[in-house]
Amino acid sequence: MSVARPKKVMDALDAISDDSDDSGSDSSGEEEQQKAAEQAPAKKQKAGITIEDLQKQGYTGGPSVLYMKPPEETAQANWAWSDGKALKGKEDAEESYEERQRTHEAATSAAEEGARLAMKAQQHAARLRDEARQEREEAVQKSRKDSFGQKEKRKRDAGMQSRGKSTVEEEKRIARQLGVYSGFD
């Protein structure tokens, strides 16, 4: 019968222990470790991801900080109240005559365009008011020609019944319009 030997397990404390067993066991332990390392499945080493790999997959880089302008160096900030006189000297020199003429022309043409559009909108609103007034007058004249029954029908259609508000009669009328005939009338 063969006696099964217990497998030697790596222990971190074995390396630091002071009491050493026989020297033969140390060398056999190292040999076993080497054999175990050879027999263990080789672990895949991670391949480094490069920028080229990412670009092949469609990734693109964002804006780079290398192209940013450095912040402007400003003098010591003065947060005290100012009367504005210090900045008058820093303003641009006076405009030339041609620049003033261009500015004047642009402002004038814009004001004329705005006035023209306002007049057009006012005329449109007046035309709409006149059309609405004419429609009301035509409706009044038409109502004078209609019989009492026609007037009441028009009022009912507009939801302006002048007689008592009987909800039962109203529901029956709506049902008749929808084609429901119950025989209960």
What's the short version?
The chain has 185 residues and is mainly alpha-helical. The protein has helices at 12-16, 23-39, 51-56, 85-88, 97-145, 148-158, 167-178.
Q: Notable features of this structure?
A:
mainly alpha, 0% strand, flat, 185 residues
* Termini separation: 112 Å
Provide the gyration radius in Å.
49 Å
Regarding quaternary structure, what we see is single chain
Order of helices and strands: HHHHHHH
Q: Largest beta sheet, briefly? A: none
Strand content: under 5%
**Residue share in helix:** 55-70%
Mean pLDDT: 77
Structural class: mainly alpha
Low-confidence regions: none
Report the strand count.
0
Count of DSSP H/I helices: 7
Shape: flat
Task: Write up what this structure looks like.
The protein is mainly alpha-helical. It is built from seven helices and no strands. It is flat, with a radius of gyration of 49 Å.
Task: Present the secondary structure layout.
Elements: H1 12-16, H2 23-39, H3 51-56, H4 85-88, H5 97-145, H6 148-158, H7 167-178
